[in-house]
Amino acid sequence: MNRVNKLREVLMKKKLDGFLITSTINRNYISGFTGSTAAIMLTQKNALFVTDSRYTEQAKKELGRGFEIKEIKSSKEYYQAFLEVINKDNVKTLGVEAKHLTISQYEVLKKNLLKIKISLESSLVENLRETKDEDEVICIKKAVEIAETAFNKTLKKIKPGVRETEVAADLEYNMRLLGSEGQAFPTIVASGERGAMPHGLASTKKINRGELIVIDFGAVCKGYCSDLTRTVGLGIINGLKRKQYKVVYEAQQMAVSSIRSGVSLSVPDKKARNYLKKNGMEKHFTHGLGHGLGRNVHENPSIGSKIKGIFKAGMVVTVEPGVYYAGSHGIRIENDVIVNDKGCELLGADQRRLVVL
Ligand SMILES: [Mn+2]
Questions:
Q1: What is the CA 269 to chain-centroid distance, rounded?
Q2: CATH number of 3-129
């Protein structure tokens, strides 16, 4: 079943006569349109795609079957186009994407669509996006491969006195050369005590001998992201840090081996946390274990000890335990996996040994 029909089934279950898609990513997922300005009004009978003259030709090329394209000249005409469908299909309750509409867009919508009930919905399309089809998996695998290859090249650039920003720039450059459409998110390079900030963006700090460096990065392939974190050392790394690295790696492996379709989303986080606890490190693991990965670098489902729901085959998620020691250092190891019925497939290589440069 195609994505439009899957969404129509959801609307039926939710008793929504229509659904307005305004989020760029959801619109792209449902229709194939890669442009930046358009809205989709979907009902059981119609799929109206409203855009302006900049995108009409592009929409004709990109849209899947079943969409009717309407070109408008001013933003007011959006509402007239919506109203036509609303009247034609007798829409009484219209779902909107509450997470993506601004308050002012919502106000204008209410003012223009006086007669109908507007229902604030969250995650209707996002839930469909949780499980990936084969084509999507190919893109994510490619994005992982690009990120890994680029990272292995960048490792040669990490030397005493090199700034974190230089490492980030080199990594981003290498990913671009290998075909990445951009960065999945701003690259994190956090060395020494900056590593204790889980999301320490690359700064102008110079990297010194004896420091661990947390590098979190991702490539983009056909709109799909990868998300990897590597911790590497420079010079001589003491035994305690090496021990901690080993524990984080083992915690990650335990989490990975617990993932399978049908298992609760809370299980791998608990496995990792318990193992860190046994080693006296769990209070330094200050975030959830991971998250869904796709068109957004963070998408449904979240993977944490308090998250409800189960793993489904086709989900792509990150597994990223980390420990953070304020004033000293941080360690995080992140890999991406695809869930299947027997377990999960690790994308790219795991990082068993601490790489020391
Ligand atoms: Mn991540």
A1: 18
A2: 3.40.350.10
